[in-house]
Automatic annotation (TrEMBL):
This is Malonyl CoA-acyl carrier protein transacylase. Keywords: Acyltransferase, Transferase. It comes from Chryseobacterium salviniae. Pfam families: Acyl_transf_1. Belongs to the fabD family.
Length: 291
């Protein structure tokens, strides 16, 4: 069984999407419509901007979404039987399975990015990557820290990202290294994504989601919060809102997709990050890029 997976923030690069833009008129038209929807020339930033331009959350998230949906269009969906996305990538997955239109998906992604940036600006905070320690140990130590610090991204066995108040994250990093972590690296972000500190962003995104039409899924999406196959649009909405303050359970999602029959994972969008994570989760499955 084939599964399509869609990347999240961090997979952007200068020049992203230019080959897709030049490849077909229908893809060019789709991508150009993004400028009108967003009210600024995001394509010029994607094609010719700087790394710093692309790192701005309000640019990064729509750029990755646009690239992912354009790549999906280029390969005509590939006849997959299930989809999933890593954090932001869940919105691209919901276009792939017919739940969201491109226009509605892009509007939600833009609102999500602005809401997350506003939450970061209001309460500067941090994230850190913890390598070489069991998930349960990371969870245990985070729970013992005074202040807010929680597991945020379960990327693959031995790679878990934590998120929260800067002092709490820094204290957790010290204790996690003492407990045997190979590395505890502060990430170059000024916000605590997928933590309780994203509550203001969650409320703003929830209002936008409630005003958006969600259709019944043509194939199930394995959502970050539940890690299981979901098709009901109301449940998808609820889980998409919960995702902003809850952890991205990527390891568990991929494991459940494999348990349910997936043996061929195709990454749709910029980069190859998810392919590397999936091979670390289960080396027996096939992974590839869509384009």
């Amino acid at each position: 069984m084939k599964a399509l997976v869609f990347p999240g923030q961090g997979s952007q690069f200068v020049g992203m999407g230019k080959e897709l833009y030049d490849s077909r008129k229908d893809i060019k038209d789709l991508m150009e419509s993004a400028n009108e929807i967003l009210g600024f020339d995001i394509l010029s930033i994607m094609f010719n901007g700087t790394d710093d331009d692309l790192k701005k959350t309000e640019v990064t998230q729509p750029s990755i979404f646009i690239h992912s949906v354009a790549a999906l269009k280029a390969v005509n969906g590939l006849g997959a039987e299930m989809v999933a996305g890593h954090s932001l990538g869940e919105f691209s997955a919901l276009v792939a399975n017919g739940v969201l239109s491109f226009d509605d998906g892009l509007k939600l992604v833009s609102e999500r990015a602005k809401a997350m940036q506003a939450a970061c600006d209001a309460n500067p905070s941090s994230m850190a990557a913890i390598l070489g320690l069991e998930d349960a140990k990371v969870e245990e130590i985070c729970s013992q820290i005074s202040g807010i610090v929680v597991p945020a991204n379960y990327n693959c066995p031995g790679q878990l990202v934590i998120s929260g108040e800067t002092a709490a994250v820094e204290e957790a990093c010290v204790k996690l290294k003492e407990a045997g972590a190979k590395r505890a690296l502060l990430l170059p972000v000024n916000g605590a994504f997928h933590s309780p500190l994203m509550q203001p962003a969650q409320e703003r995104l929830a209002a936008a989601i409630e005003q958006t039409k969600f259709r019944k899924a043509t194939i199930p999406v394995y959502q970050n919060i539940t890690t299981t196959a979901i098709s009901d649009p109301d449940e998808i909405k609820k889980n998409l809102i919960a995702q902003l303050t809850g952890p991205v359970k990527w390891t568990q999602s991929v494991q459940n997709m494999i348990k349910d029959g997936a043996n061929n994972f195709v990454e749709v969008g910029p980069g190859k990050t998810l392919q590397g994570l999936i091979k670390k989760i289960d080396g027996s499955v096939d992974v590839a890029s869509a384009i």
